[in-house]
Amino acid sequence: ADVEPVEVSTFPGMQEVVDKLEVHVVSPFQNMVNGTSAKLGNKAPEPAQGVILYGPPGTGKTTVCRYLAHRLKSKFFVFRESCFDGGGRWELHDVFARAEAAAPSVLFVDDVDVLFHRGKVAWGGQGDLFRFMLTKLDGIASQSIKDQGKYVCVIMACNDLRILPEALVRSGRIELWVKTKRPNSKTRQKILRKWLNEEGGVLALTQDSAIKEVAEETEEWTCADMRRVVKDARNILAFEEAKADRALTNGDVSMGGNEPASKSPKYASDADRANALLKKAHTALKDMVEDVDFWKDARMAYT
């Protein structure tokens, strides 16, 4: 399927991750495809045999997947936990077969911590699938595979390394570890500004001071959380405008029928309105994000 181009330069905080993948995966693969590796001989760089892309949910792993898919095009294959209903070995076997047929290629295994949770594997769950994956990872590392030109780089994405079996991530099977991180305050400001500008209209007028205030109050929030703040601000704006329109239609009566429309929010300027919308969205989302983090930490305590 066609993949929408992703310009990672427009996603604040992702450049370090992308640079590592460009150096250790994308560039060596492109050399293989265009014949440069053959000219360089033994000096040609080889793609990392196995890669772990890890970090909290919402920190850009899906964006990186889309970026790689666009860069590598037909050389990129994806396998997710949702790809199978119990007979996962055969679905994974099929994806590996297609990746090997297109080699050199990259196979992206998403949510590997869901597929191969160490507790599940220890009790025999996904046993065939797990053994198949280990066999393929060991086979990829063999010199005969490289000599045949069937080089497949496996990139596995997960949220929490602690719940993966050691056998899966030991040295020799994994050569590159790439971490996606929660953005710092400055990066959060850039993320908010990016999405506010893309929304356009009133929200694009949000002042830097308001953005900085929200960014400083969202320590430990993810990229996805910041995107959600802007989406919620857009929804609040749409609600206020619909409420005002209905009030005019109903003769200066608000949507509830009891409150005069004159008590609807009033702002000195569109910029003030945009500032207020962003802060409202942040306040409304704050409790939910904190509740999610609480239950996530509680679950991890029993993992």
Automatic annotation (TrEMBL):
Gene3D superfamilies, alphabetized: 1.10.8.60, P-loop containing nucleotide triphosphate hydrolases
CDD domains from the xrefs? RecA-like_protease
> SUPFAM superfamilies this protein is in?
P-loop containing nucleoside triphosphate hydrolases
What keywords does the record list, in alphabetical order?
ATP-binding, Nucleotide-binding
Boundaries of each AAA+ ATPase domain copy? 47-182
Molecular function, one GO term? ATP binding
User: Which interval of the chain is the signal sequence?
Assistant: none
Q: Which family is this sequence assigned to?
A: Belongs to the AAA ATPase family.
Q: What is this protein called?
A: AAA+ ATPase domain-containing protein
